[in-house]
């Protein structure tokens, strides 16, 4: 029988950068941001706050589930412990035929401390100096919260667990803006502050190949093609620079 699958489907040579010689298939991480919550349209900090999906968020998660079921090949689903991510992961897992969802605490969103539940405008009004420092230095944490540098340390542990311990294949990670951007920064070996120049829609997909030799390839970022026909308003709400706070 003729093999009609593409090299991409088989984990073939095109999984590299186009320059390097691939000697072993990678671990591929599909990175899914959770769907909308009631706070998303209001652009409020919702780091470790326990807020669930809105009706739009559920519809977005179902659209992502259909997209991922059509793609196939997912061997494991890992989720942040936060409710909005777990709900999204469970909807997708059901669409994959009941794939079990494992919770990884290090996939949680950045803790925004005293800023949880506030808009950035409210934060700047109450903490002007702290907000300016936070915006310019990833090592600065909100009052009582966590810096993006701290988030990076957590996501380095996730990468080690997924890439170094799992067999080659495709793993779905359901997480948040801060965590997903951090993984992209790691893959690109970019400065951590570059995450402020990235935008992620609700329920978007990104994709990274991680090779055993340490090479990483970002194959997709903020892919929302599956949301175009979803029965909800899946347009991004408030496209402002640096939505890591959402």
Automatic annotation (TrEMBL):
SMART domains: PGAM. It holds the Pfam family His_Phos_1. InterPro entries: His_Pase_superF_clade-1, His_PPase_superfam, PGM_Phosphatase. SUPFAM superfamilies: Phosphoglycerate mutase-like (SSF53254). Gene3D superfamilies: Phosphoglycerate mutase-like. Residues 1-22 are annotated as: Disordered. Residues 1-13 have a biased composition (Basic and acidic residues). It comes from the Bacteria. This is Histidine phosphatase family protein. It comes from Actinomadura keratinilytica.
């Amino acid at each position: 029988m003729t093999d009609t699958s593409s090299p991409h489907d088989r984990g073939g040579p095109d999984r590299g950068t186009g320059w390097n010689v691939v000697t072993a298939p990678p671990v591929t991480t599909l990175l899914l941001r959770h769907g909308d919550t009631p706070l998303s349209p209001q652009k409020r900090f919702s780091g470790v706050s326990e807020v669930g999906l809105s009706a739009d968020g559920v519809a977005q998660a179902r659209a992502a589930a259909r997209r991922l079921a059509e793609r196939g090949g997912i061997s494991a689903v890992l989720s942040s412990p936060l409710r909005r991510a777990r709900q999204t992961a469970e909807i997708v897992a059901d669409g994959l035929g009941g794939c079990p969802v494992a919770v990884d605490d290090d996939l949680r969103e950045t803790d925004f401390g005293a800023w949880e539940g506030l808009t950035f405008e409210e934060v700047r009004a109450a903490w002007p100096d702290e907000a300016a420092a936070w915006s310019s230095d990833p090592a600065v944490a909100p009052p009582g919260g966590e810096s993006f540098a701290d988030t990076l340390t957590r996501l380095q542990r996730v990468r080690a667990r997924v890439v170094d311990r799992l067999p080659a294949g495709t793993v779905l990670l359901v997480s948040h803006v801060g965590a997903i951007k951090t993984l992209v920064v790691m893959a690109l070996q970019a400065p951590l502050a570059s995450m402020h120049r990235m935008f992620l829609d609700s329920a978007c997909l990104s994709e990274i190949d991680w090779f055993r030799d340490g090479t990483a390839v970002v194959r997709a970022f903020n892919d929302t093609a599956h949301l175009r026909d979803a029965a909800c308003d899946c347009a991004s709400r408030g496209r402002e620079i640096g939505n890591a706070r959402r």
